[in-house]
Amino acid sequence: MVILGLGSNLGDRLAHLRLALELIKQIPSCSVQQISPVYISDALLPENAPAHWDIPYLNLALRCHTELLPYEFLEWIKKIEIKIGRTPEKNWGPRIIDIDILAWDILIQYDEKLHIPHEYLAERPFALWPLADVAPHWVHPLHHKTSAEMVLNWGSRFSGDAPFHTRQIQQRIDTPQLVGILNMTPDSFSDGGQFMDPTLALQHVKKLVKAGAEIIDIGAEATGPQGDIVNPLTEWQRLEPILTVLLPELDGMHIRPKISIDTRHAITAKKCLDLKVDWINDVSGLTSPEMREIIADYTNDVVIMHHLTIPEDRTLHLPRHEDVSVLVYQWAIKQLERLEKDNINAERIIFDIGVGFGKTAEQSLALIKSIPLFQQLKTRLLVGHSRKSFLQLFTAKPAPERDIETIVLSLSLMTHAIDYLRVHNISDHAHAFKVAAVL
């Protein structure tokens, strides 16, 4: 058993940790058996360190099995650090990625290259807590205590009262990334009218990020069957105030969320892209030539969704007697080919199967069950099934009370390594994923 500690405090820290995980999985004769939650902590700084070094770290641990010898394994780790972008830095300086061997069974080895177990392990909750999450029964060969025993004096993993203000956060690197929803609309089916005020909207975004969201999807036009068509001028009048308040606040959040704008209007997309938003979520699937022309001029990611009509018209749906998954898959293939011709690379595309848009309830459920088919597209996948009407197959409750049904389907999608889930109840999803990840 080998325990690796991973840390990052530069750039998109979660993305760096995810990349490190994928590269570690590719090490020959190595398997990753369990992944810890993510912890945030103050940077460990020497005296008189420059102020710009004081950037919080994200840390986690991996429990691995390998047939490699310690020096061989260390060589692979160093290659991975370099591949991700780590360059030689002064001791204690900020790092895009840091991978340490925290423990190796009961091995004790201290030389010029290896310090096993890590000599400061007992003093650093940002290293020992993640280790205890993945190997609670590991016995420290020098302290002669289990890792679970050694962390007891620090109290709660969530309070931030431990050394370096270490605490566990809700985001994970091995479960679907959660897309929080912010509707700047009076008529959205689940939360219409709640966040039209920019101050309330900003508070909601901060709450979503704290709960576990990594992307915030902001929409100013309801596209459900009850939604009114909104022109670009009205859409921008709703979006501009919240973007003006929100964008300057992003870097101050413990996790900087990506901002997605849910729009089918090219002029709105351009204004938002010029403000440096991260995604455009086009529910009309980039079927507009004007939208494709705008998107081709930028490098941002874009979500394309299968649909029949926008807003959704429940009287129109795909043929009942045909395989709905094949129909949607074929549409996606054709659309990806069109986008490639328009210089929109598939690497930028996130495909949304369009639950509820032009599908019966049974067809929407069938699409969710067919996710492995859509993984053959070789694009990232997003599913937006949260609280939607197809869940009336399972409950008569109104939309705001359909979270249990939503979460059960989300857990199933998690087993298929779906990339993104657009959901209303971020907090309960994050907690459910955290428990499911250890089973």
Give a written overview of the molecule.
The chain has two domains: 2-168, 7,8-Dihydro-6-hydroxymethylpterin-pyrophosphokinase HPPK (Alpha-Beta Plaits), CATH 3.30.70; 177-436, Dihydropteroate synthase-like (TIM Barrel), CATH 3.20.20.20. The strands form three sheets. The chain has an eight-stranded parallel beta barrel. 43% of the residues are buried. The model has no long low-confidence stretch (mean pLDDT 94). It is built from 13 helices and 16 strands. It is globular. The chain has 439 residues and is an alpha/beta fold. Helix 6 (232-246) links the parallel strand 10 (215-219) and strand 11 (258-262).
Features:
16 strands, alpha/beta, 439 residues, single chain, 8-stranded parallel beta barrel, 33% helix, TIM Barrel, 2 domains
Tell me about the largest β-sheet. Answer: 8 strands, parallel, barrel
CATH fold description of the largest domain: TIM Barrel
| Elements, N to C (H/E) | EHEEEHEEEHHEEHEHEHEHEHEHHEHEH
Overall pLDDT metric: 94
Distance N to C terminus: 18 Å
Which CATH first-tier class of the largest domain would you pick?
Alpha Beta
Inertia-based shape: globular
Label the structural class: alpha/beta
Gyration radius, rounded? 23 Å
Percent range of helical residues = 25-40%
State the domain count: 2
CATH superfamily of the largest domain: Dihydropteroate synthase-like
Total count of strands: 16
Please list the strands of the largest sheet in the order they lie side by side. Answer: 9-10-11-12-13-14-15-16
What CATH architecture of the largest domain do you see?
Alpha-Beta Barrel
Determine the number of helices (DSSP H or I, runs of at least 4 residues): 13
Q: Report the portion of residues in β strands.
A: 15-25%
